[in-house]
Amino acid sequence: MLLSFLVYVLAWAFQAFTGFGAGIFIVGILSLFYEPKTVIVSSTVVNLLGIISMLLFLGKITRPNFKILFPLIAGSVAGIGVSAKLLMEIDREVLKALIGGFVLFLGIYDFLVQTNSLKFRLKASPFVGVFTGFLSGIFAGLIGMGGPPPVVYLNQVCRDLNTYKITLSFFFATNVVFRIIFYLLYGGTEYWSYELILPAFLGAPLGVFAGIYLSRYFTPYFVKRFISLSVLSLGLFLLLEGLKEFSHDFFKHSVIEESPYGGLKSHKTPGN
């Protein structure tokens, strides 16, 4: 429990500072010590606790921009539906590399905008919101990471950092609630681990408090650039991870197919 508690503090301190990223730390680290499916399913409850903490802390300061939020939610629902179909037809390793490359592009683009090296800034509109949410839903359904598109979008259209964070938190909250409902309907709750969930009741709020408190010591300009670099780093990680998995599977299958012994089968002789 101590390990998961420390991971939750770190993960939610990062998310409270940048607005996203807790799930990457939680699933990435704890899956090394626990069964991955148990971590993924249990993390929905952990993430809900963290999001509630974000909303409670930030709700005293600002309110979400619902005009921006609703198109994002509508688009994400459609994207999740499309991803269910794509997941059955597309190689996951290739997909992860492609999405990683796109996220890397998003991070570079947003960094150039935040440093005023590029003047083409996204504008808040229902169309852009729905399209961004759609991409987020596809990414979430295919690789479990739907954060980068709305992060980049809101990082550019929300001037105030707290408005950016609370609007993004509401968006993530809807995704997590839908996932929990699906788990309740289809029996996924059997993978809930109280050993993983209980430490979050203290670890998640403590991490959120630490992240929000820490962000007060940095200028919004610095935080926005840090968000861009975080998206960029995630994209690079996904790209390299996808290429590594694809090359490993490609090499393994190539060796089996080319081996002169690959097609041999054992035949029993009469009497054996």
Automatic annotation (TrEMBL):
Its main location: membrane. Keywords: Cell membrane, Membrane, Transmembrane, Transmembrane helix. It comes from the Bacteria. It is found in: Cell membrane; Membrane. InterPro entries: TM_pro_TauE-like, TSUP/Inactive_protease-like. It is a multi-pass membrane protein. GO terms for cellular component: plasma membrane. The chain crosses the membrane at residues 7-33, 39-57, 69-88, 94-112, 124-146, 166-186, 193-214, 226-243. The keyword Transmembrane helix applies. Belongs to the 4-toluene sulfonate uptake permease (TSUP) (TC 2.A.102) family. This is Probable membrane transporter protein. It comes from Aquifex aeolicus (strain VF5).
